[in-house]
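Notebook entry, structure prediction.
Reason for the run: the old model in the group folder had no record of what sequence produced it. Starting over properly, with the input documented here first.
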Amino acid sequence: MTTDRGEHGSTARTREEILEAHQQIHEVIQRLEEAPNLLELLARLQAFRSLLVPHFADEEAPDGFFDLVRAATSRHLVNVREFEHEHGALLDELDALAERARACLAGPVAEILKQSAELARRVRDHEARESALLVDALYVDVGGQ
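New structure, fully documented this time:
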């Protein structure tokens, strides 16, 4: 997201690019908030991170959004520094959340899925033995009537 102020309309184009990127992030945030389950949340967190990393890098790059603000006015320097610091903190928090989701899927959720599969296997076995009993009782003992 570089700005060549010698090029006509570059600041307006940069502003449009920034607003478009922020709109895209807003849409991904909404999908993140609406994740219907832990697996989908984890997938959406990964997609969100893939969007945020280059976005933050563009903002922090030479001639990026933050340099644009610094060049325009000095009264926002404190805000720019805060945003730069928040970038790292937000990515760290996102990574920690994703790790907790993976741990949950590998731990409690995996155990519940394992128990569910075992229960399904036991019920399937039970039903098969009942079917075998029915076949034996009706076709062997009764004579297939």
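Summary: The chain has one domain: 10-112.
The old model has been moved to the deprecated folder.
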